[in-house]
Specification:
The complex is a heterodimer of chains A (about 260) and B (about 260). With about 260 residues, chain A is α/β, with parallel strands linked by helices. Chain A is built from seven helices and ten strands. Chain B starts with a helix and ends in a 15-residue tail after the last helix. The chains are: A alpha/beta (about 260), B mainly alpha (about 260).
Chain lengths: ~260, ~260
């Protein structure tokens, strides 16, 4: 469905220099697949995601969605950012329905869809609160609902749990999996956490920095539904070790 | 309601005390040194001079207030679209901003007599002068607000396929409202200045006109009365802007009415 073929992106810096954010990236993602992206800071994960969202265009290579070249934000693609980025002047329900309201679909059924999602995200009763009255974890859940309300076929998540504490993070990973199982869509999920990537994903794309390249693609053969018990399994360790070795290169072998 | 009134009293007690002390000091100064009323009238002298002619003063107040409000309305009606135009593209900004700065480097007080000759000594030209004195800070702060929307929110709009107009109206404009209200407070104060300047130059009623004619006959207490009313008008407009801001922009953090931690 999504296909990146030898994609590259170079940014110009303000001082006139160049930063090669992505180089020769080739990935294809199937419908309904859960793909995690891990890699060191600055290796182009966000750039890759923003590219699939149509917010950044590649300078070389091809990015296609169902065979069509991506030239801008496409319908069917929704993005969840690292910070909640809620609109402070709208209540929770209207924030969730915001993407629909932009395309004129702001009727009662949009509100209803927003309410159902908020309910499933454990936010029933908070529909009419303002964002600043919510905790960070609750705000991030609202942001996820805002992505899901568009009924995307591709959900892009850029370190959505990055700002959360470990407990909230684990809880949210499981509810994300439940939501994904209930709504058929491909998920592209950027994270810094190797165990989070293995727990969630069907495949983990490991990226290496400067320039951002795909170092390895690791298949995770753990049965679903996933749970934290599987962290003790051999497969979990195999995947984690493979990913860790790829990220740290030779350094990990020294141990 | 009762606790509200008590709250209000407690919050405003310092300013009430300081105002009363100021008036008392003024009164004692005038009486103690026997300053003649046409040089500096005491508060009581102002009061006794103003009360008998209050219908006349009320008439002048209404005239000035109307000019101020029309000037403020014109400032809003012109500044907001102008600010959106400037914020919408770099080319627009490069084309319009220098012209705006140019209009600001011309002293409007010097322009007032010229404009009154060109447009006639009527209310319309007084409103224009009021507008010219007041609109600039409103444009500047509105543009700053429209450009202040964080890039994450803009990117959110893009990812939801917002058009440029939607980006401006649905994201940038609401985000800019606290900035707009900041500019509006300054503009409201400046409108009072502008209206009085216009009335000094060419008017047959209004508080500015009253001050001039009163001073021509050394009726200083009446002129002082007009000045006090202008000050009250300025304060009232400022408060009104704040009340409207509280209604329209409840999310603005600098208006957090729940934090009474400073008393
Ligand atoms: N708009 C831009 N202009 C200039 N350089 C950019 C821009 N966006 C990204 N870069 C550069 O591209 C490289 C990759 O950035 P990117 O944000 O994709 O990294 P990342 O893998 O998401 O990092 P992190 O894990 O810290 O979020 C960085 O060196 C960054 O400085
Ligand atoms: Mg990033």
């Amino acid at each position: 469905m999504i296909s990146l073929a030898r994609v590259g992106k170079t940014f110009k810096t303000r001082r006139g220099g160049h930063v090669q954010a992505l180089d020769d990236v080739t990935i294809s993602i199937r419908p309904g697949e859960f793909v995690a992206i891990v890699g060191a800071s600055g290796c182009g994960k966000s750039t890759l995601l923003r590219m699939v969202a149509g917010l950044v265009l590649p300078d070389i290579g091809h990015l296609t969605l169902d065979g069509k070249l991506v030239t801008g934000a496409t319908k069917g693609t929704a993005m969840v950012f690292q910070s909640p980025t809620l609109l402070p002047w709208m209540n929770v329900e209207r924030n969730v329905a915001f993407p629909l309201s932009l395309s004129g679909g702001d009727g009662p059924e949009a509100r209803e869809r927003a309410r159902v999602l908020l309910h499933s995200a454990g936010l029933a009763g908070f529909e009419h609160r303002m964002p600043r009255e919510l905790s960070g974890g609750m705000q991030q859940r609202v942001a996820i609902c805002r992505g899901l309300v568009q009924q995307p076929r591709i959900l892009l998540m850029d370190e959505p749990f990055g700002a959360l504490d470990a407990l909230t993070r684990e809880e949210m990973s499981l509810s994300l999996l439940a939501l994904w199982q209930a709504n058929p869509m491909a998920v592209l999920f950027v994270t810094h956490s190797i165990s989070e990537a293995v727990l969630l994903a069907d495949r983990v794309v490991v990226m290496s920095p400067r320039p951002g390249r795909v170092a390895e693609i690791v298949e995770v053969n753990l049965p679903r539904p996933r749970s934290f018990d599987q962290e003790a399994s051999a497969e979990f360790h195999r995947c984690s070790k493979l990913i860790r070795d790829r990220i740290y290169g030779g350094a990990a072998h020294a141990h | 309601m009762l606790t509200n009134a008590a709250d209000w009293g407690r919050r405003n007690l310092p300013v009430i005390v300081s105002t009363l002390t100021f008036l008392l000091g003024w009164e004692l100064l005038c009486r103690g040194f026997g300053i003649r009323p046409f040089l500096l009238p005491s508060p009581s002298a102002i009061w006794t001079a103003v009360v008998p002619v209050w219908p006349n003063i009320a008439m002048h107040t209404v005239t000035t207030l109307r000019t101020v409000l029309l000037g403020l309305a014109a400032s809003i009606a012109i500044s907001l679209p102008l600010a959106m135009l400037i914020a919408s593209s770099r080319t627009m900004s490069a084309a319009i901003y220098p012209l705006l700065v140019l209009t600001q480097s011309v002293p409007k007080v010097a322009l007032a007599p010229i404009l009154l000759v060109a447009l006639g000594a009527n209310e319309f030209s007084r409103v224009i002068i009021t507008f010219l004195v007041a609109f600039f800070p409103l444009v500047v702060s509105s543009v700053a607000g429209l450009l202040a929307a964080p890039p994450e929110l803009i990117e959110l709009g893009r990812s939801c396929r917002a058009t440029r107009v939607q980006e401006l109206l649905r994201i940038r404009l609401p985000y800019a409202l606290p900035f707009v209200f900041g500019g509006l407070r300054v503009a409201a104060a400046l409108c009072v200045v502008g209206a009085v300047v216009a009335e000094f130059v060419g008017a047959d009623s209004g508080l500015g006109y009253l001050i001039q004619t009163s001073m021509a006959f050394f009726r200083t207490p009446v002129a002082f009365g007009a000045v006090v009313i202008l000050a009250i008008m300025g304060i009232a407009l400022f408060q009104l802007v704040e009340v409207i801001e509280r209604l329209l922009v409840p999310w603005s953090s600098n208006l957090d009415s729940n934090s009474n931690d400073n008393n």
